[in-house]
Design goal:
mainly alpha; single chain; globular
Length: 89
C-alpha cells in the first residue's frame, strides 16, 4: 500500500512540476510520507494545513494531493486506534 501511495505521490508531483521523475524523494514527497507514517492528529492537521495553503495559492492539484495525504493519515490513525483498543481489552 505504501509503495503504491509513494508512486501516486511521485506521479502527482511530476504532473504538477512537469519534470522527470527522480530517483530520490523530493522534500514534498518526504514530508507526505513522514506525515502518513506519523499517523497522529498533528500529522493530520499539518496535511490539512498544506492542502488549504495550496488552495489559497490557486493550486487545485496541490490541494487534492494534500487532502489525499490527510485522508490517508486519518485512515491509518483510525486503524491504529482500533488495533490499540483491541489490544487493551
Amino acid at each position: 500500500m505504501m509503495k503504491r501511495l509513494i508512486g501516486h505521490i511521485r506521479s502527482s508531483l511530476a504532473r504538477l512540476s512537469k519534470r522527470r521523475r527522480q530517483d530520490g524523494l523530493t522534500a514534498v514527497e518526504y514530508e507526505a510520507v513522514c506525515l502518513i507514517a506519523y499517523e497522529g492528529q498533528a500529522a493530520y492537521d499539518r496535511a490539512r494545513q498544506q492542502a488549504y495553503y495550496c488552495r489559497a495559492r490557486g493550486s487545485e492539484q496541490g490541494f487534492r494531493f494534500w487532502a489525499a495525504v490527510a485522508a490517508e493519515v486519518d485512515r491509518r490513525a483510525g486503524a491504529s486506534a482500533k488495533k490499540h483498543d483491541e489490544q487493551s481489552r
